[in-house]
Amino acid sequence: MAVVAAAAVVAAVAGKSILSLHGRQVSRNADLATLSKTAAEAVTQAISQDVKTNGTCHLALTGGKTPALLYQELVAASIPWPQLECYFGDERVVAQDHPDSNYRLAYHSLLSKVPIPSNRVHPMVIDPSQPQQDAQRYATLLNNTLPKHNGIPCFDLILLGMGADGHTASLFPGSSLLQEQQQSVIAGYVEKLAAWRISLTLPVLNAARRVFILVSGADKAAVLKSVFTEPAARLPIQQLHQRDEVVWFVDAAAAAKL
Question: What total of structural domains would you count in the chain?
């Protein structure tokens, strides 16, 4: 899909306007519930168009607190689930049934409630004791199943969040994972969290045809202002290519300083 068409998918959703703020496409919403509904409609339209055009859609889900309501909205959406290939943008290196697992959140709030075949759902962590091996396995999976853009696995749609420190996926400020340019998936130990994470790398995030970023809460307001107004790419999320198909879904609390 062309850039203009990708933006049009979102702009048409429920009559909501997409604003251009500092060169970025932004959907401003009153609260998290409204954000979730708007984003769900955009996700539904994007998936449906991809399936109609290409026969499938390669989607990467996100974790954290913000997407839970979105996933609940998607349960009732008219999505061709059997044609969807579902992946993850990052994962905590824990068992799949662990409370901190992104897979667990997505499974209980969405994937277990819709008719998506189990072989089309691709968790990142298989063996929590072997994060490097899981990262390599996932990189091989992406290389074998996704189309390529300049040799890089290319998702149709990646959902992302943003932390109050400007991180996205598991790419944190100062992390060595940010420097990876060769691998599509990498495992690393995050010092500030004292934990292992697996994440898609920046080249893969930037190769995606569409990226939807979900940001909610007053604790994100200051960093969101910095992301939008400071030209230097000092934060991980600022290193996403600023293209029209990168669309920010924000609530009033997060957008309070814009």
Answer: 1
Residues in Cβ contact with 40 at an 8 Å cutoff, skipping those fewer than 6 apart: 70, 73, 74, 77
CATH number for 152: 3.40.50.1360
Q: Report which of 12, 6, 26 is spatially closest to residue 251, judged by C-alpha positions.
A: 26
- Which residue, 19, 15, 7, is CA-closest to 37? 15
Q: Which tokens hold the place of 102?
A: 């992104």
Q: In this predicted structure, what is the pLDDT of residue 17?
A: 61
Place of tokens 């390669």: 58
What are the Cα distances from residue 126, in Å, to 92, 96, 133, 189? 12, 8, 9, 17
pLDDT in tens, 105-133: 999 999 999 999 999 999 999 999 999 99
pLDDT tens track for 162-218: 999 999 999 999 888 898 999 999 999 998 889 999 999 999 999 999 999 999 999
Distance in angstroms (rounded) separating the CA atoms of residues 32 and 72? 13
For residue 12, give every residue at least 6 positions away whose Cβ sits within 8 Å of its Cβ, in sequence order, or none: 45
List Cβ neighbours of 119 (8 Å cut-off, separation of 6 or more): none
257 domain residue, yes or no:
no
